[in-house]
Amino acid sequence: MIKVTDSPHYHGGVKLKTRKSFLTLFLVFLWISPTVKAANGVKVVNVGSPAPPFTLKDVLQAPPGIHGTWEELKGKAVVIEFWATWCGGCVLSSSAERQIVYTSPDGRLTVTVIPAGKKKGFEDVESRIEVLHKGSLLLGKDFSSEDGEHGAGIVRGHWTSDSMFFVFLTEFSGGHTPLLHPIYFYCRRENTINMLNPFLDDVLTQDFSLKGRNTVAIAAQDMRGQARTISVKLGTVPCGSIATCYRLGSPHRTVPAREYIFQEDFNPDSLERRVYVRRPGEQERRLIFTHFRGVSECVGPSGHLALINSFLATKAVEVYAADLSSGRSWRIDAQAVELYKDRAHPNPALIIVPNGEDMSPGDGEALLRMDLIYASVPTPEQAEQVGKTFQQWWYVVDSRDGKVLREYRTPAPMKWWVHAK
User: Are 45 and 36 in contact (CB under 8 A)?
Assistant: First the structure.
């Protein structure tokens, strides 16, 4: 580790520690060339000898392009401190020095990125983030994990020029999904931190840059491996609750303040399947749906309703809403399907079904997507040709009665299709 004292200055909203504090440069690889060769062949440097050349690979809290060469440090006092990861005091000391402070352009807020590894030696791969106003903590988020291998580290961040958003890039600490670098943003108006990825199409975000007042240009890769650039204006992205279903059977089974246990009974004689729900601690379970082939369910964000896709047959799907308290269920896709057929004029060879995707924060609205599941033609070539005529549309319906409220045509609406009310 090399500490450099210099006059105070700022760069890109990042406060560089200076004469009264320190700009900390982390030495990832340093090779000292010989000026004297000892008898045993070990290369050493005598006190008073010219400093050997070197280049730092990683320099934190420094302007882009700075590599810590002697030419760049000429005229400054440099202190070299040697330490090891097995030295607890050394690690704690270095972690404190390695906090990165980002100051908003208006100077009123600061974001501090803090090494937060809970397992010794992992401090460089996991992080915490804190937002402060005049030293008082406004909001904090911990990206670390107990084992130091299942959390995330904050790679870098930037304030938007209007000081309303702080955008930062993360990477997973365990080495899983190396192509995905999730992007988060702090919203000053709502004092919230949200992930930007759910607002995008199915892409792997890899990097970002800022343009204009609050537009994020995202470098991404789609599922076919093609590079894409996506621009998102943060002023149009809600900072509060976003619509999202909690898919059953996934890690996200818990809904706010409630957790539901779903069970299914199968009658081999009638082939009837019954879906029951109960909360932990309850003895009675409630029947919420009966089917004969298969269903997929998700619980709305408020935990009041479930969205159910019922597979009547290979080529038939219906969408229902179910009240988790009473067990009552009702169909909500009929009007949307008829409206799609009337307006989109789909090719008769296309088998199109609705798919319940999401619910609004209050479970009052559901998002239905029209999906192509089958092309009724004799050859693959004809199927490909007919498939090109398919138009994927989306409908927002009232979850109480299925009344169509809004229609979206290609391109797809982002996940924030409805704002929290």
Answer: yes
